[in-house]
Amino acid sequence: MRAIIVDDEPKAIELLKSYLNHFSSIELVATFRNGLKAFEYISKEPVDLILLDINMPHITGISLSKMLPDNIKVIFTTAYSEYAVESYEIQAVDYLVKPISLERFTKSISRVLSSKTHTTEKENQLIFVKSGFETFRLVSTSILFLEKDGNYMNYHCKNQKIMARETVQESMEKLPDTFIQTHKSFIINLENISSFTSNELTIGKEKIPISETYKNEVLKRLENNASR
Hints:
Distance between the termini: 22 Å
Shape: elongated
Radius of gyration: 19 Å
CATH superfamily of the largest domain: Response regulator
Oligomer: single chain
Number of helices: 7
Strand content: 25-35%
Helix content: 25-40%
Structural class: alpha/beta
Order of helices and strands: EHEHEHEHEHEEEEEHEEEEEH
CATH architecture of the largest domain: 3-Layer(aba) Sandwich
CATH topology of the largest domain: Rossmann fold
Number of domains: 2
């Protein structure tokens, strides 16, 4: 599990880093003292967990959390208990009031790891993609979107792009229902969307069109995801 820390206090970051060292299944990949810098990183790199201070300059932790993809788990860390109610409305995993003890921190991380353990098979489904003489074994969550190019389908993944000779229908048949077609040339993974309008959606730095043919179904699925 990949984690980041966002806190404008260096001492708070060092304390959380020392606590995370006790959990081998969590990899601390970055720390930030600026929420906007953290958001920029998240838009480019996969992150599973964010330890997020609330009262920060430029952008508050509450505001930043509302910009995050649904699949990123949030643990708020703050010296101000009055934000607790709003943090739970955002469905944060936990709300830790400073000073944070290792015992209390451990209980919070246990919640995260427990929920990760119960990830459904569908979310972790393996997809086998044949490209030339090679067959690639992909976890479905690593696939951002698929793009049709003539007789080929390009699988845009988090760390690579794979070209396979297959039709849109053949691709859809092997993908779990977290994927949906948005256009004659595009299939997207709903779990990796960062924002959307009625005409397009954003995955990482890419803008994916939503055509009139698929608009009603796509917007319905997006709205259902947002209300969960």
